[in-house]
């Protein structure tokens, strides 16, 4: 099996404190350690859609590569919400979160995640896009969600697995796990390239 071969060859290192990404790796049965570096997530304004997440996933890996052991495989990832040619990252405050969710209300958007896998020898990055559609949300619903769930660590100011996703999302085309924060099927396939 792919995982057995990769695990026998590499120690996997997750460069993220995201509880959702940690849980996905645990669910996959992947043993891993966590190692993070402070990275200012800034990208050139000329980048669009998956170019942004690809850039940021590689950027998150950069400060950790020098100290990476030969038998370590580094996992970095980035997720954005892409709406009307604009990237929505994490909201700065409640007002920002309200504006983001309001802009998603009654429309469809794309959630784009990139996964970057790095060793001393090679680095690959791939992205996955999922289309998500919200029904029209009321002001009260949006405020209730922000007040009770405080989605300030989430791109686009929402978690599909939380209350707002349960009551507001009418359809999804593509990977659900991608919207949560890690396209696990794609990640699994990418591991094959390191066997």
TrEMBL record:
Major localization listed first in the record, in broad terms: cytoplasm
EC numbers on record: 3.6.1.9
Active site: 78 (proton acceptor)
Reactions mediated catalytically: dTTP + H2O = dTMP + diphosphate + H(+); UTP + H2O = UMP + diphosphate + H(+)
One family name in Pfam for this protein: Maf
Localization per Swiss-Prot or TrEMBL: Cytoplasm
PANTHER family: BIFUNCTIONAL DTTP/UTP PYROPHOSPHATASE/METHYLTRANSFERASE PROTEIN-RELATED (PTHR43213), BIFUNCTIONAL DTTP_UTP PYROPHOSPHATASE_METHYLTRANSFERASE PROTEIN-RELATED (PTHR43213:SF5)
General function of this protein: Nucleoside triphosphate pyrophosphatase that hydrolyzes dTTP and UTP. May have a dual role in cell division arrest and in preventing the incorporation of modified nucleotides into cellular nucleic acids.
UniProt family annotation: Belongs to the Maf family. YhdE subfamily.
The protein's name: dTTP/UTP pyrophosphatase
Species whose genome carries this gene: Neptunitalea lumnitzerae
């Amino acid at each position: 099996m792919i995982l057995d071969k990769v695990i026998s060859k590499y120690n996997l290192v997750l460069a993220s404190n995201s509880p959702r990404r940690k849980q996905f790796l645990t669910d996959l049965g992947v043993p891993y350690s966590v190692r993070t570096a402070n990275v200012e997530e800034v990208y050139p304004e000329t980048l669009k859609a998956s170019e942004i997440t690809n850039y940021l996933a590689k950027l998150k890996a950069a400060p950790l590569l020098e100290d990476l052991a030969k038998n370590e495989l580094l996992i970095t990832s980035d997720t954005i919400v892409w709406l009307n040619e604009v990237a929505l990252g994490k909201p700065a405050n409640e007002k920002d979160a309200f504006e983001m969710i309001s802009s998603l209300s009654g429309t469809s958007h794309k959630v784009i995640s990139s996964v970057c896998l790095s060793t001393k020898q090679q680095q690959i990055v791939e992205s996955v896009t999922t289309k998500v559609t919200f029904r029209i949300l009321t002001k009260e619903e949006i405020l209730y969600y922000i007040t009770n769930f405080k989605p300030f660590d989430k791109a686009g100011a929402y978690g599909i697995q939380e209350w707002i996703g349960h009551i507001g999302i009418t359809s999804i085309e593509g990977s659900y796990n991608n919207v949560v924060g890690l396209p696990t099927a794609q990640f699994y396939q990418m591991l094959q390239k390191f066997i």
